[in-house]
Each structure stands twice: as C-alpha cells, then as structure tokens.
Amino acid sequence: MSLVSIRDVRKSFGPNEVLKGVSLDIAKGDAVAIIGRSGSGKSTLLRCINGLETYQSGSIVADGIEVAGANTNLRELRRHVGMVFQQFNLFPHLTAAENVMLAPTVVNKVSKAEARATAAEVLAKVGLSEKMDAYPSELSGGQQQRVAIARSLAMRPKVLLCDEITSALDPELVNEVLRVVEQLAREGMTLILVTHEMRFARDVGTKLVFMHHGKVHEEGAPKEVFAAPRTPELQQFVGQVG
Amino acid sequence: MLQFSFWDILSNLLIATQWTIVLSLIAFFCGGIVGLVLLFMRTSRIAPLEWFTKIYIEFFQGTPLLMQLFLFFFGIALFGVEVSPWMAATLALTFWTSAFLTEIWRGCVEAIPKGQWEASSSLALSYIEQMRYVILPQASRIAVAPTVGFSVQVIKGTALASIIGFVELTKAGTMLNNATFRPFLVYSLVALIYFCLCFPLSWWAKKIEGRLNVAR
C-alpha cells in the first residue's frame, strides 16, 4: 500500500491551471525526485501534500489522512508530514536547538528535557552538534538548511517533503545538504524532493518523476529514465540541464 | 477675592496632571489588551472576525475622539445607566487606543515573512501557537518604537476628556484661568507640562527605532 497516494489532482490559480490531473503513488521508503521546468507545477504539487495549498479536484491521501480542503485534520497530517523549504525559514529569534525543540514541546507536549535530547540527536545527525546554541544569523546557508532538516526530523515524520532545498545555497554549500538527504534516503526515510540537482536525482532517488505543463509526463527508475528518456520533452530537458 | 500665586497655579496643575497620567496609563494598558485581542481576530483569516475588527477600526479611526467621548458619556445614559465622566473617558480612550494599536501591530505582524508562517504551519502549530511562539516574538521587536510613539497621542488625547467634565490637566487649566484671568500664563504652563510628559516618550521611541535600524 502506498504511503502517499495522489489521484487526478487538479489545481488552478485563477484562470491558470497549474496541475492538470496528477496521479502518483509513493511507497514507504521511496525517495522520489520530482524534476521539471519552473512553472511545471512541481512545487505546487508538493505544497498540496501537506495542505499549504488547496486543490480543486482529485484526492491526496498521506499516511491514511485525506488532504481535502477545510475539513482536513491539518494538525494530525503535519505531525507526520515534514517539510523543508528553499529559503530555510528558520525562526530567527530562536537558537538552532530551540528551533528544533519548538514543535515537539508545543505540539506533542514533550518535556523540555526530552525535546532537548531529541534536538541533540537530530542535530548530531545533520552534523551540527556543536551549533546547538547558535542563532540562525550565526550560521551559513548550508548549516541553516541542515538545522531546518533537523527541525523536521524532530517530529519523526513518516514523509519528508523537500522543496528545492539547495536552490538558495552557494554552490560550495550544496553538497553538505545533499549528503544529509542522501543519508536519510539510505536509512529508509520516505522523501519527496523537488530538485534541480539531476545527478542527485539519478544517484539517490528510487523513483524519478518528470513534470511538464501540470502533468506527470514521465516516471520510472531514475537511472533508466535518464539513460533513455522516452518523450522528446524530457530528452530536451535533460539535454539542457544535464 | 482669593489671590493665586504662581506656585498655587503650578501646584494645582501638577495635582491635576496626576489624573492625566492615570487616565493615559489606563487607556494605554486597557487599549493594549483590547488591541491584542483584536489583533488576533484581525489576522485570524476567519471572515466574520476580520470584518468585525475592520468595522471597529474604521469607526474609531474615522470619527473624532471627541464625538466618541460624547457618545459614551451621553449614549450610555440613554439606557438609564449613570455614567461618570471618569468612566466615559476611560471607555472611549480605551477603545480609541485599541483601534490604533491594532492597526500598528497588524502592520508589524504583516512585516514578518510568509515563510515563517509556512514553516510553523508545516510543523503542525495552530494559529494561536504560531502567533505566540513564532510571529509575535519577532513582530513585537519592530512594534516597540511605533507603540511608544503612539502613547504620546494617547496622552494628548486625554485632554479631550476635559470637555465632558473630567478634571485632568486641561480642565484644571480652564478652571484656574476662570479664577485668575491669566490665560497666557496658565495655558503656557499646561502646554509645558504636556510637553514634559510627551517629549521623553517620543525621544525614547526615536532611540529604539535607531537601535533597531542598526541591528538589521
């Protein structure tokens, strides 16, 4: 059974239809890389999965919770579906550890001591043990993004959504973030990544999805899809970026 | 006829100044509490709550404070409830202050980047939790300077309470003028006292603003 099931999802911003019937199944342990041109609807699709965007028709079920409009139990959904953003979005008035501890203490009512232990564990996992008490402004972009990943991990999500998480980073900082994601994939974390890192999508992804004009244009095992793109659009796209 | 020395005038004005200060403090703190509640309603994205606060703010910002004082003073009396000038002044100034503070603070909340809302939403925080732990701690930093700046308006606003008979600084000035027939002296002193109350606040507000600009 799939952990995230997306069925014929359609979404418009005003007259502009950005998702034109997207269907996708994501199994536990999958690392799905979604690629495509800007404006192809990949980020919108990702944001529909945790309810940051609503959609007009179709259905999305994530970890057994139907994501559908105003009646969705968003709190329950988001406890199990984490998200990491392009712009990190760390809370600037809190230290790295406090950023990580906030949701466990406030949402899950975990004690401060227990949350701090979890923070230490997840920050160690992203290689930032020594930065627990640093404020975001004292960290590099790559470090901030790793704190953001740790912040999501502290909620023990079943699925982690990553929205172009290396796009705002200086080139030399990209790899430290990708290494963390790669490690998560190896440990069996279910990941859905919107990415422009083609090499990463090919080497780390278990599944590749190419979106084009609001639809899943091509999908399959990354190495096969990259080696032999079936559609001219993907051939062209791979030729341009790869 | 009773003679008033300069010191008599000044000491009487200073006694009345206490009431200006008390009225300002009450209006500011009660207005702040009401304003905070309204702020939550105004930014809640719940349509009826937003509409209510919009109309409330438009009313109190779009009509003269003096009219509001009259409405509270004479309006409540229509329902057979006796209203003292003190009560009417407190209520009117509280609501008037809350409307302005809500708008000032809403601006500060909206200055917080959208990503902060999205990130805290994605961590399953509710709206109230987002405001309390993520948005307000950041918004309050930028709100301090304009809030202190506005407190000057509250102090000057209390002068209007003299018209419904509440004896504060301005009213005391009027009464002393009637007794002494020395309007220029009396009102100069009144103005000077207002200035001494307000100037430190506006100076402080400027200072905080400058410090924030350096930090960014």
UniProtKB/TrEMBL annotation, chain B:
Location in or out of the cell: Cell inner membrane; Cell membrane
Checking InterPro entries in the record gives: AA_ABC_transptr_permease_3TM, ArtM/GltK/GlnP/TcyL/YhdX-like, MetI-like, MetI-like_sf
Q: Which residues cross the membrane?
A: 20-41, 62-80, 184-205
Q: Name one GO cellular component term.
A: ATP-binding cassette (ABC) transporter complex
The topology of this chain with respect to the membrane is: Multi-pass membrane protein
Q: Which UniProt keywords apply?
A: Cell membrane, Membrane, Transmembrane, Transmembrane helix, Transport
PROSITE patterns associated with the record: ABC_TM1
Ranges for domain ABC transmembrane type-1: 17-205
An example Pfam family from this entry, by short name, is BPD_transp_1
Q: Where is the signal peptide?
A: none
Q: What are the GO BP annotations of this UniProt entry?
A: amino acid transport
Report the protein name in the record: Amino acid ABC transporter permease
